[in-house]
Amino acid sequence: MQEPSGPLKGIRVLDLTRVLAGPTCTQMLGDLGAEIIKIERPEAGDDTRGFAPPFVPNTRESAYFVGVNRNKKSVTVDLASAEGQALLHKLLPSCDILAENFKVGALAKYGLGYDQLKAKHPKLIYCSITGFGQTGPYAPRPGYDALIQAMGGVMSLTGEPKGSPQKVGVPVADLFAGLYGCIGILAALNHARGTGQGQHVDIGMLDTHVAWLANQGMNYLATGENPPRLGNQHPNISPYQEFPTKDGYIILAVANDPTFERFCKAFGCDHLLTDPRFASNPQRVANRDLVTETLTPVMRAKTTAEWITALETLKIGCGPINTLQEVFADPHVQARNMVIEMAHASGEKVKVIANPVKLSATPPDYRSAPPVLGEHTDAVLGGLLGLSAADIAGLRERKVI
Predict the structure, then answer these.
(1) Would the CA dihedral through 100, 104, 107, 112 be positive or negative?
(2) Domain boundary residue among 295, 322, 349?
(3) Are 249 and 300 contained in the same domain?
(4) Residue 174 catalytic?
C-alpha cells in the first residue's frame, strides 16, 4: 500500500462500519488521505462481500464491496471475544476517529460505546451512523435503505401519478447518510484541531433523508399540502420533464420564461406566447398537463440527437436518458476520469468509480484497491501494536483474528 497523501494525511480511522452508509463515509475519508483500518469478522467479513453476483471479473470480490472499500486496510477481529475487544482497545490510542454503524448501544457490550470511551480518549471523534439516530422513539430500530426511503417521504414523491410509490433506483438513503457522516467528521476534526476536544457525530438515516427533501419538503411546509407524484415532471417548473422523440426519449429542462420564449420562436410555437396558460412559469405549472399534451407532438418530430443539437445551440437544457453503458462511454464522463483502474491483490486490475471531488492542490488519492479479507491483519497488528509473528499466529489459531 502506498503512503497516503491529501488533506487528511496523518489521520487514522478505526472503521467498524459495513454494508454501504458507513463504508461510503470512510471511503471518502480514505480518498482524502486518511488511513482507514477496516475491522471485519474473521472468515465472513463485511456482509457485502457476499452481495453477489456480480463479482468483479477474475476475483472473489463482489462488485458491491469493491465499490465502497478502496483505500482501506482489512483487519479481521472477532469482536465477540474478549481478546478481540482488547485488540481494538489497544488500537484506539493511535486513532483519531472511530466510525461505526451498529445498532444503538450494540458496541457498549464490548466496552466500545462513546460514553465508555470519551473520558479515556477525549480527542476521539466518534461517528455513529444508524437508521434513526441515537435518540428518539425509533432509535432502537434497524434501518434499511428502502425502509428509510419509504418513511422519509421520497417514495411518496417518486413514480407515475397513477402508479404505485417507487423508491429511487440506487440506495440514496445509505449514500446520503454516509456523505453527511463524512461532513460531520470533517467539521469535528476542524474543531478538535483548535481545541483538542473530540465529540460524537450522530447521523440518523431518517434525519438525512428528511434533510434532502429540499424543495419538495419546503413546498409542503409552505402549503401544508402533500406534493403529488409527478413522474419525471418538476414540481415547480414546466416544461421540465421527459418527452418522446422520433427514436426514443429526451429530457427537456426549460428553467425560465426567456428560455421558453426561445424554444417557442425556434420550433414553430410562437402562438403559445400569447396564450395566458403558457405566458409564465406559474401558469405553465398550473396547466402542466396541457403543456405536456401540446409539446409532445412537437418533440416527436425530431430524433433525440437532432433535438440535442438544436437545443444546445439555443442554450436550452436537454439531455438523453442514458443507460449505464452509455454513461460510462460518454466522452464527458471519460474526460472527467470518472472510472479508474486499481491493482488488486488478486493480480487483476479492478475498475472503480472515481471520487467526484476535484481538488486542485490535494486531489483524491487512489493508493490501494479494496482489500481481500484480512489482507492487512498481520501488518497492522505487528506494526501498530508490536505483536510478534508468534503472537499473531496464536490469535489466529484461537480464531480471534
Answers:
(1) positive
(2) 322
(3) yes
(4) yes
CA distance 99 to 398: 27
Calpha distance 392→314 (Å, rounded): 67
Quote the CA–CA distance of 3 and 9 in Å, as a whole number: 9
Q: Are residues 311 and 353 in the same domain?
A: no
In a domain, 138, yes or no: yes
For the record, the C-alpha cell of 3 comes out as 503512503
- Say what the pTM is: 0.93
Instruction: Give me the domain span that covers residue 60.
Output: 12-212+333-397
At residue 171, the 3 state secondary structure works out as coil
The cell for 288 is 402542466
How does residue 1 score in pLDDT terms, banded at 50, 70 and 90? low
Sheet containing 240-244, strands listed edge to edge, beginning at the edge strand earlier in sequence: 240-244, 249-253, 317-320
Grid cell of 233 as nine digits: 415532471
Catalytic residue (one of 46, 174, 202, 207): 174
> Can you say how many angstroms the Cα of residue 327 is from the centroid of all Cα atoms in its chain?
18
pLDDT tens-digit series, residues 373-391: 999 999 999 999 999 999 9
| C-alpha distance from residue 213 to each of 9, 158, 184, 216 (Å) | 34, 12, 19, 6
**Do 280 and 195 fall into the same domain?**
no
- The answer to whether residue 289 is domain-embedded is yes
